[in-house]
Amino acid sequence: MAPPFSLSGFSMADAAALALLYGLWLGIGWMIEHPPARRPSVSMLMAQYRLDWMRQFVTRQPRIFDASILANLRQSTAFFASACMITLGGGIAVIGNSERLDMVAADLTIEAEGAVLEMKLLLVLLFVANALLKFIWSHRLFGYCSVMMAAVPNEASDPQAYPRAAAAGQINITAARSFNRGLRSIYFALAALGWIFGPLALTVTCLITAAVLIRREFISESRRVILLCSGV
């Protein structure tokens, strides 16, 4: 007796496309966070700016400007976290309705059973769930950073001023790293949507996503501008 669901709806081409998806996701993340010393990524350049920010923060009076920047950063993480939660809720609702998925497949002229589409949509939701966790942690870290910034003495001559500012800078960098990882998960969640139309479409969307990320981190105009005054 055949089981209710099997992997008969998937082929070796699907497996290869999935391996490419996960390989690019992990590989590009590693490349961005561990770039060559002679060609740092935008994320690494911005990390240096965050440390410089904390050094300038020590002597800036008043510090309302710094508080506003941090509030905007926390607002961004909260926005993306909320968007991910809404996406997860909608995705779970769709997956729970096989008949509706069959209708969607028919409308898109996709030759796939509802159960197969469920598995493909589940992959997208896994990336979105990972992004949600990253955004939540980033939001919390930015909160830690705000408390540590508030603990920096107002007098630059205080022996704890610059060490505490440097520690706040490191937490800020960690929060930004988690935020960037969440964004990359969103990018690859969009790429994973290509699987709905088959392994070839997934391969194409993965390569396009990888090209976009590499360009923005290593060869974009914004990187050139950021690099000008980075001192790297």
Question: Key terms for this structure?
Answer:
232 residues, mainly alpha, 78% helix, 0% strand
Task: Describe the protein's architecture and organization.
- This protein has 232 residues and is an all-alpha fold.
- The chain has one domain.
- 78% of the residues lie in helices and 0% in strands.
- Helix 1 runs antiparallel to helix 6 and helix 2 packs antiparallel against helix 6.
- The radius of gyration is 22 Å and the shape is elongated.
- 29% of the residues are buried.
Q: What's the overall average pLDDT, rounded?
A: 89
Number of helices: 8
What amount of the residues lies in strands?
under 5%
Number of domains: 1
* CA gyration radius, whole angstroms: 22 Å
N-to-C SSE string, H for helix and E for strand: HHHHHHHH
What class do helices, strands and sheet pairing give? mainly alpha
Q: For the report, how would you describe the main beta sheet?
A: none
Shape: elongated
First-residue to last-residue Cα separation: 65 Å
Tell me the helix content: over 70%
Uncertain runs are 1-5
Count of extended strands: 0
Compile the SSE list and pairings:
Layout: H1 12-33, H2 42-59, H3 64-95, H4 98-107, H5 114-150, H6 161-192, H7 199-219, H8 221-228
Brief overview:
The chain has one domain.
